[in-house]
Structure formats: C-alpha cells, structure tokens
Design brief:
Elements lengths: L1 E4 L10 E5 L7 H17 L2 E8 L2 H8 L13 H10 L4 E6 L2 H4 L3 H12 L2 E7 L3 E2 L5 E2 H11 L2 E5 L3 E2 L2 E2 L2 H9 L3 H8 L4 E7 L4 H4 L5 E4 L8 E8 L6 E8 L11 E6 L10 E11 L7 H30 L1
Parallel strand pairs: 1-4, 2-3, 2-5, 3-4, 5-8
Antiparallel strand pairs: 6-7, 9-10, 11-12, 11-16, 12-15, 13-14, 13-16, 14-15
Amino acid sequence: MKVFRGLPNDRARAPCALTIGNFDGVHRGHQALLARVRAAADSLGIEAAVMTFEPHPREFFAERAGEPGRAPTRIANLRDKLESLENAGIDRVIVEHFNAHFAGMPPEDFTGRVLVDGLHVKWLMVGDDFCYGARRAGNVATLIEAGRQHGFQVETLNTVMEGAVRVSSSAVRAALAQGDFNQAKQLLGHGYAISGHVIHGQKLGRTLGFPTLNLRVAHRPALAGIFVVQVHGLADQPLPAVASLGVRPTVDDSGRQLLEVHVFDFAQSCYGKVVRVEFLEKIRDEEKYSDLTTLTAAIHRDGEHARAYFRRAGALTATDRI
C-alpha cells in the first residue's frame, strides 16, 4: 500500500476509486464501505484509495477555538489506522493535512482541485451524512452533481447496525470508555489493541519491581485506567500482562499520555521493537497516590488481578479441550 502525505505527485496520480473519511478505528461500518470500494476498483481496473485527515477535523476546530477538550478522543493511532486500511485491500492512502486552508476550501474547489485534478477520481463512495468544503456547505446531493459535471460516479453506503446500535466511531469510543471490550469487539470485528515502538521511560517501574514496556500515545486515547492485556510481537504466542494507560498522576504532572505494560515473567530487552497491546479487561480507573509505597501496593494488587484473569482463562481453555 502506498501512503502519501498530501496529494500525490503527477506520476502517482493514477485513476482511482476513492472513499473519504477519518476512519478512526476502522470499525465494521468502515469495513463494509472499504469492501465496496475494493470491489468497484476491481470492476473498473483502477486502484482503491482512501483520503483521510491528520489532525482529525474536529481536533483542528477545537484547538482553534481554544477548547482542545472538546475534540473527540482517538480510537486508533495513525499506524494502526493505516494497517487496518491495508488489511482491507486499499492500494493508496492520502493523509491530508487538515489546516485552515483546507478547511476554508469552497466545495467546488474541493471537487475540482482535489478529487478531479489531484486524485483522478472515477468512482467515489461516502457515507449518507457526508459533508465537505467550507462551513460544510457541500453534501451528497452537490457531490453527485459535481460527479455528473466531472465524470465520476458517486455512491453512498447506508448505516451499518449491530442489533439496535449504529456502528460508528462514537459507539466504539463509548464502549472503550466504559471498559466494555466485548461490545468494542462486536463493533470493530476484532479485539481492541494499540501498537507502537517500545521507548525508554523513567525506569521507575523497574525500581519498584515491575519493569514496563513504554509506548508513547500521541493523542488523547478513548480509554484510560489499569487493564488486563496481552502483548503481541515478542513471542510466538501473545504474552500475559497488566497495563496502565494514562497520565501517571502520582509520578508525573506533565499530563503526557503513556501506555506502560508489565509483561509477566519476561525479562528481555525490547527497546525499539513494535508491539501490539490487546486490551482484555478493565481493572480500575487511574488514581493519584500519596507516596510510592502506596502506589507499589496498588500495582501489586493489579498484577494479581491480571494473573487471576489468565488463570481463569487457562482453566476455561483446558475445559474446552476435554
């Protein structure tokens, strides 16, 4: 899969079947849309492409208004989003920088300069509530009319439902915020995970007797707290672990988000490796403790909770084999 930061250069502007969106989490609704794009690209003999945005448009407008807390939390980092798009069979991803210039572009400039001249779109699929251009003045009706003028076909995809719940990024965020990983899995079509490079930390966990793998979290995540997790990428099988995702209020007042993972009975150096941390159960919310002794006792209790979870899971697996 080819990834472009902004519009491709002239040599890379092959005709494409395109869809546009934030694709945060690439849930089952997104997957249905992407499958339709892949099928259309195959039938037309062209590439399947996605245009997405960085930052999220709502993050941009919240920052500009001086209210960053109003921006939605992130389900997935860019690495995980791109991996999901590649797994869906997409050939080309355009990561468009969402800024004041892009936000102020009239709808007709977006269709003419971006879709037609910039991407050579021949077929386009969007959600039934899609809006575009300055002040969201463009909608599906104006897009269909632009397609007639410029020679590209527009299709829309109806909402995908999971029972009575609309499959959406908002629904996934709500499930993750509540620690409902079964519901998140139903909406996503797979277990929820965060991947990233293992980085150096303060080595405080090692001092306390709980060495951790540290993953940087660039944006405000959709969940926070202490979790039972398993780590992929360090061995042939996922490794049992306990994790903290948040701002570490007892030892750090910077507000920086960090994912810290203590892998049980594991002592290898992992710096620089890419791992995937899959979330299985929420243990509790993050807390601020009065001293390191109290913090250490809480970490010990969390570790015992997680070990008990894996003992139960192992017993269930053994029962299933009988």
